[in-house]
C-alpha cells in the first residue's frame, strides 16, 4: 500500500455519503472511492447471508481499486458483515461505523440510559448493546428498529408532514422514555438529525456516526503514518444501479459535478 492510495467507502445507498463527506472534510488530500449498492438497498430488511455476500463483493472491488483502508459506512453491514470483510481484506484495515460511536458514547460520564434507533437488522444483531456494555457495563441500552426512516429519507420526504409524524411516532415509543442520549444507528439518519433534535428540544444528546467516523479515520491514518500528501483528482463514485436521485445527492454533498459509474458484480 502507498500513502497516495485511496480510501474505500461503501453503503447500500445515500446514507454512506454522510460519512464520505465527513472524511473528505477532515482529510481534503485523500482520494475517495465510494460504492453505493443501490440495487440492493435497503440492507436493513435483508437476510444476514445476503448482507455478507454483498459486503464481501464490494470489499473485493475496493481491494482491486487498491484502497489502503476500507470504511463500512453502513450500520447494518458493520453489524452483520464486519468480521467477514476483515477476514477477506487481509492486511488492509477495515473500519466500521459502530465502534467509533460506541467509544465516544461510553466515555461520556453523562451517559446512563442510551437509546439506539436503526434498521431491523442492526437492532436485531444487538451489536450496539453488546459493544456499549463491553466498554461500560453500567449503561442501560434501549434499542428500537425504525424501518420506515431509510425509504422516506431516500425518497426525500422526511421534511414534510408525513416524515415528521413518523419521527414523532417512533421517538414517542415507551422503550425510549427517559433516555439521556440517542445514537442514530444508521448512516442515513444524520440527514434527519435536526428533526430528531427538535423533537427532544435539547433534552437528549443525539449522536450520529458521520462526524465521529470522519475524525476517527483521520486519527487512524495519522497514527499509522498513512496520510496522503497530495490529491488533485476527483473522487470516484460507483453504484450497482444508477439513479438520478443518488447522483443529485452526491453532487449536493460534494459541491461539484459528479459522474456516477454503474457496475455490478451480480
Would you spell out the secondary-structure blueprint of this structure?
Blueprint: E1 7-11, H1 15-26, E2 32-36, H2 48-64, E3 69-72, H3 75-89, E4 94-96, H4 99-107, E5 113-118, H5 120-125, H6 127-135, E6 140-145, H7 149-154, H8 161-171, E7 181-185, H9 193-200, E8 205-208, H10 209-223, E9 236-239, H11 244-254, E10 261-262
Parallel strand pairs: 1-2, 1-3, 2-9, 3-4, 5-6, 5-7, 7-8, 9-10
Walk me through what this model shows.
The chain is α/β, with parallel strands linked by helices and 266 residues long. Helices cover 45% and strands 17% of the residues. A six-stranded parallel β-sheet has the order 4-3-1-2-9-10, sandwiched between helices. Strands 6-5-7-8 form a four-stranded parallel β-sheet, with helices on both faces. Helix 3 (75-89) links the parallel strand 3 and strand 4 (94-96). The chain is globular and about 50 Å long.
How would you summarize what this structure contains?
With 266 residues, the chain is an alpha/beta fold.
Amino acid at each position: 500500500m502507498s500513502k497516495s492510495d485511496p480510501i474505500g467507502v461503501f453503503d447500500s445507498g445515500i446514507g454512506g455519503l454522510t460519512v464520505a463527506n465527513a472524511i473528505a472534510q477532515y482529510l481534503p488530500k485523500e482520494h475517495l472511492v465510494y460504492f453505493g449498492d443501490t440495487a440492493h438497498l435497503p440492507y436493513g430488511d435483508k437476510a444476514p447471508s445476503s448482507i455478507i455476500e454483498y459486503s464481501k463483493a464490494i470489499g473485493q472491488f475496493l481491494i482491486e481499486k487498491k484502497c489502503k483502508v476500507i470504511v463500512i459506512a453502513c450500520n447494518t453491514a458493520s453489524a452483520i458483515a464486519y468480521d467477514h470483510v476483515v477476514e477477506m481484506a487481509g492486511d488492509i484495515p477495515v473500519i466500521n461505523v459502530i465502534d467509533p460511536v460506541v467509544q465516544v458514547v461510553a466515555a461520556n460520564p453523562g451517559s446512563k440510559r442510551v437509546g439506539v434507533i436503526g434498521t431491523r437488522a442492526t437492532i436485531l444483531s444487538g451489536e450496539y448493546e453488546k459493544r456499549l456494555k463491553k466498554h461500560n457495563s453500567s449503561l442501560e441500552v434501549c434499542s428500537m428498529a425504525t424501518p420506515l426512516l431509510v425509504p422516506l429519507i431516500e425518497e426525500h420526504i422526511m421534511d414534510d408532514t408525513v416524515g415528521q409524524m413518523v419521527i414523532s411516532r417512533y421517538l414517542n415509543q415507551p422503550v425510549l422514555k427517559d433516555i439521556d442520549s440517542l445514537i442514530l444507528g444508521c448512516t442515513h439518519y444524520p440527514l434527519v438529525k435536526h428533526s430528531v433534535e427538535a423533537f427532544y428540544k435539547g433534552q437528549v444528546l443525539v449522536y450520529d456516526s458521520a462526524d465521529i467516523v470522519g475524525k476517527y479515520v483521520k486519527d487512524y491514518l495519522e497514527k499509522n503514518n498513512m496520510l496522503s500528501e497530495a490529491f488533485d483528482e476527483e473522487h470516484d463514485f460507483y453504484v450497482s444501479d444508477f439513479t438520478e436521485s443518488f447522483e443529485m445527492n452526491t453532487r449536493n454533498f460534494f459541491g461539484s459535478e459528479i459522474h456516477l459509474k454503474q457496475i455490478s458484480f451480480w
